[in-house]
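User: Could you go from structure to sequence for me? I need the amino acid at each position, not a summary. Structure tokens:
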């Protein structure tokens, strides 16, 4: 992950992917946790800051579990804006709406704890109404992304309903975000995913391509089974109010 970040920052690569195991976003500063030994994302962010002087890093985590280790490492740092979408309640039991950062980092930690059953349409709405405006306000110099394929509808450890098409949409939105806000500088990092077919096919199609389209309004992404998703509007409204987006 550090090499990918270095290559993108220095212009050796347009963007990057780090396919690594074990995952890292649960690893705490002083111990491993939840299949994670080292906080790969936090290490990469600190490297970008200390080795390359990057002052504004947007980190988006759409693993189905809350990235508590990434949050813990960066909780008081205004040089990182951390946004986590995760199923709630679920392991590790962290990631509440009220956890917004501390000291200089207050307001730079954004949790979107989503009830079970969310699919492509509601994830797209969260990105459109929360992630996009926060990113535009923050104006990052690079975007780092923790991708977990455990929000896929086939995953045995959670209860979300993203499809591979939905995952592709989220990745494309982030690539477009990077193109518009930070000269395309973006690196994706592998986190969870416990259905091997979903994980394998997901990463096979997950290439950070140029978006090659203008950003439109919210797309129509039906969930995998066509069933109605829970109403996400009240949660989006609460996040917007907490973080000054209304």
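Assistant: Here is the amino acid at each position, in order:
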């Amino acid at each position: 992950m550090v090499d990918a970040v270095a290559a993108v920052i220095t212009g050796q690569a347009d963007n990057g992917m780090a396919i690594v195991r074990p995952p890292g976003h649960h690893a705490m500063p002083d111990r491993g946790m939840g299949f994670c030994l080292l906080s790969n994302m936090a290490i990469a962010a600190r490297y970008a800051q200390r080795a390359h002087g990057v002052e504004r890093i947007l980190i988006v985590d759409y693993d189905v579990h809350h990235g508590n280790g990434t949050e813990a490492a960066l909780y008081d740092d205004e040089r990182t804006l951390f946004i986590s979408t995760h199923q709630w309640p679920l392991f590790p039991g962290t990631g509440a709406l009220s956890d917004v950062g501390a000291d200089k980092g207050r307001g730079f930690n954004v949790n979107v704890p989503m009830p079970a059953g969310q699919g492509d349409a509601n994830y797209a709405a969260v990105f459109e109404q929360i992630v996009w405006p926060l990113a535009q306000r923050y104006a990052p110099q690079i975007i780092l992304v923790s991708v977990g394929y455990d929000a896929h509808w086939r995953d045995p450890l959670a209860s979300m309903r993203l499809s591979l098409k939905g995952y592709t949409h989220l990745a494309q939105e982030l690539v477009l975000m990077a193109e518009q806000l930070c000269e395309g500088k973006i690196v994706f990092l592998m986190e969870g995913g416990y259905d091997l077919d979903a994980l394998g096919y997901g990463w096979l199609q997950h290439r950070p391509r140029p978006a090659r389209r203008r950003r439109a309004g919210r797309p129509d992404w039906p969930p995998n089974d066509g069933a109605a998703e829970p109403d996400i509007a009240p949660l989006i409204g609460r996040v917007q109010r907490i973080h000054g987006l209304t």
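One structural detail worth keeping in mind: Residues 2-186 form a domain with the Arginase; Chain A fold (CATH 3.40.800.20).
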